[in-house]
Amino acid sequence: MxxxxxxxxxxxxxxxxxxxASHMTDRYREIARRLSIGQKNVDIARDxxxxxxxxxxxxxxxxxxxxxxxxxxxxxEEVVNVTSRxxxxxxxxxxxxxxxxxxxxxxxxMRIKASLAILDRAGHGPVSRVHSESFHAYLDGAxxxxxxGVTLPGVSMDVVDVKEECV
Length: 167
What we know:
Layout: H1 8-16, H2 26-36, H3 41-48, H4 52-59, H5 62-102, H6 108-121, H7 141-151, H8 159-166
């Protein structure tokens, strides 16, 4: 006899929702692809015009999780391949840049752009924002002496000497 404390309609509905298909639809593949690149469930649902619950349901499926893992692994391998190709091309790229920057026939604007790009990548880009604060103070010789005494411990100067230097 069924347990009266359990809503069997909900249990049956949940059991019907378990996703164990041997193949994935294009929609599920697209959800998996978006999950593999780190998109949020809410964004995927909005962009694909599906519910958040559907995205969550697909995300929690073992088959889709396997697919997401495979996509992330392939993406990681591609990043490694691109990185190694870039490293291989670096010496040639530096030579091209040297030639372009030093070549008098290359327009000055192009040489400047190339130089700025190199400096930017090397961490010497333009300052985007400078924050400064200023204040004004009027100091007499005694104030200056106190400041020197604080900043230069062990240095003793006669206040009279400071006043004579200031006059």
